[in-house]
Write a structure and sequence with these properties.
Layout: H1 27-40, H2 45-57, H3 65-80, E1 84-97, E2 101-107, E3 111-113, E4 115-117, E5 129-136, H4 139-143, E6 154-157, H5 168-178, H6 180-186, E7 191-195, E8 219-222, H7 224-236, E9 242-247, E10 250-264, E11 269-279, H8 289-307, E12 315-322, H9 337-345, E13 353-356, E14 366-370, H10 379-388, E15 394-395, H11 408-412, E16 419-422, H12 427-430, H13 443-461, H14 467-470
Helix pairs in contact: 1-13, 2-8, 8-13, 10-13
Subunit structure: Homodimer. The monomeric form is inactive while the homodimer is active.
Subcellular location: Endoplasmic reticulum; Golgi apparatus; Lysosome; Secreted
Protein name: Carboxypeptidase Q
């Protein structure tokens, strides 16, 4: 379903400049932010980027030739856009390959299920795994089982993911995928199957990363209708359900991934860096359009609009297309390999990072802004609200605690985060599935995203607000 983005009918003269004479932004900066916002609404650079990315390179599994080729293309596009200090920064990676995956009910009602292997999961023996299914309606029911209680069985969790605008339903169920196989193995299970962490009712399954390394078992996700079928089966008979699992998934080679970096160098406070971006890798089922081709395109297009401005921003704005966000690695750190590499390789520069955020929630319209703690009652917030309100973006007084998954290691190093929150009501209908394709993106909604990013970044880059010094102060809720 296409999303509809309607701008509020507010002219430049209707912005609340007169009502807020103490704004830290000067009138020129505000007018320029408005101009960037309005220009973005008629600009199609973001859609063209994600269209080319998904068409040229298709799926971009971390460490694959496709992901590596897309990074080289991205660096070339950054140079064409006029970005400064363009680079590709490589780091080692273990390449995971999906292979084949099959799950079938052997009894009491023999039939195949529609499944995918979880990312990072291991292969079964060549003959597969057979066993009685231990079926749980909730993940907590599995966790309540003592060690050894599932010996020789296949653990199955049917818990649904609740649909929510901000994606919190996925946040609540993601441990079922991330830690479920490990927890099942602790209790003696020989295999693991969960209901896909999706919010649709179509018969395709969602992949996604799970914990890798010792102490796990082969793991699969089944489509929501297959989970419902299994529920009906259990209700219809007292006989135990027996299943067979087969997978050839596993880590197959040493490879590398990479971060693609470009920036618009500041003038006046160039050493102060604002970091934005998204992740370039994707799962291998669809073409990674909403996760996260949209995000890399939105942030690059916003920075391109800023690069085209007659004057330079005061602070430097850096765009990072992180590599290897999706697939866990056989190391203690597990995931976010590109984000960790970025933060670790710049550990001595974190004091110069003034803010960080990413776009990694599809291309739905942005509906709210979160700022770091202490920033709610500031002239900067009032300026941002004045410019973003015509886009339908409201201010949420709850402090931003992170800017998205790939910002995590940078935030952990002490860098404040902000969030431009997208409407993700239907994001988990297609996330990590064969249906994550370009057709799921509404170009009009994508333009609204670019408008919000470009206008906000212009205000932040040309302000003297320092989120680092504001933290710890009171955050009013008015």
């Amino acid at each position: 379903m296409r999303l509809s983005v309607r701008l509020l009918a507010v002219s430049a003269t209707a912005l609340s400049l007169a009502a807020a004479p103490a704004l830290a932004q000067d009138a020129r900066t505000l007018r320029e932010a408005e101009q960037l916002r309005d220009r973005a609404l008629h600009d199609n650079v973001a859609y063209e980027l994600v269209e080319e990315l998904t068409t040229r390179f298709g799926p971009r599994l971390a460490g694959s030739a496709s992901e590596q080729a897309s990074a080289r293309w991205g660096a070339d596009r950054f140079r064409e856009m006029g970005f400064d200090n363009v680079s590709i920064e490589e780091f080692p990676l273990a390449l995971w390959t999906r292979g084949e995956a099959r799950v079938e009910i052997l009894s009491p009602f023999p039939q195949p299920l529609q499944v995918v292997a979880l990312g990072g999961s291991m292969a079964t023996p060549a003959e597969g795994i057979e066993g009685e299914a231990a079926i749980f309606e909730t993940y907590q029911q599995l966790l309540d089982q003592p060690e050894g209680a599932l010996a020789g069985k296949i653990a199955v969790v049917l818990q649904d993911t609740v649909q929510a605008q901000d994606g919190r339903g996925y946040g609540a169920t993601s441990p079922i995928r991330g830690n479920g196989p490990f927890e099942a193995a602790k209790r003696g299970a020989v295999g693991y199957v969960l209901r896909s962490l999706g919010t649709h009712d179509h018969r395709f399954a969602h992949t996604g990363a799970t914990r890798v390394g010792e102490g796990t078992v082969p793991a699969f996700a089944m489509s929501p209708p297959d989970a419902d079928q299994l529920r009906r089966m259990v209700a219809m008979t007292d006989q135990p359900v027996r299943m067979r699992l087969f997978s050839t998934a596993g880590f197959t080679a040493d490879s590398h991934s990479q971060n693609v970096i470009g920036e618009v160098r500041g003038s006046g406070a160039a050493d102060e860096v604002i970091v934005i971006g998204g992740h370039l890798d994707s799962w291998d089922l669809g073409t990674g359009a909403i996760d996260d081709g949209a995000g890399v395109a939105i942030t690059a297009a916003a920075l391109k609009l800023i690069e085209d401005m007659p004057r330079r921003p005061r602070r430097t704005i850096r765009v990072v297309w992180w590599g290897s966000e999706e697939v866990s690695q056989p190391s203690p750190a597990q995931g976010l390999a590109g984000a960790r590499f970025y933060a670790q390789s710049r550990s001595g520069e974190m004091a110069n990072h003034v803010a960080v955020s990413e776009s990694d929630f599809g291309a739905g319209p942005i509906y709210s802004l979160n700022l770091p703690a202490g920033a709610a009652d500031t002239d900067f917030r009032r300026a941002a609200q004045a410019v973003l309100t015509p886009l339908g973006v409201l201010f949420d007084p709850a402090p931003a605690t992170g800017g998205g998954p790939d910002t995590g290691p940078t935030v952990a190093a002490g860098v404040p985060a902000f969030r431009l929150n997208q409407d993700g009501t239907d994001y988990f209908d297609t996330h990590h599935t064969v249906d994550d394709v370009l057709d799921r993106i509404d170009p009009e909604a994508m333009d609204q995203n670019v408008a919000a990013w470009a206008a906000f970044l212009w205000l932040l880059a040309n302000s003297d607000v320092d989120f680092r010094t504001l933290r710890g102060t009171a955050t009013p809720t008015n």
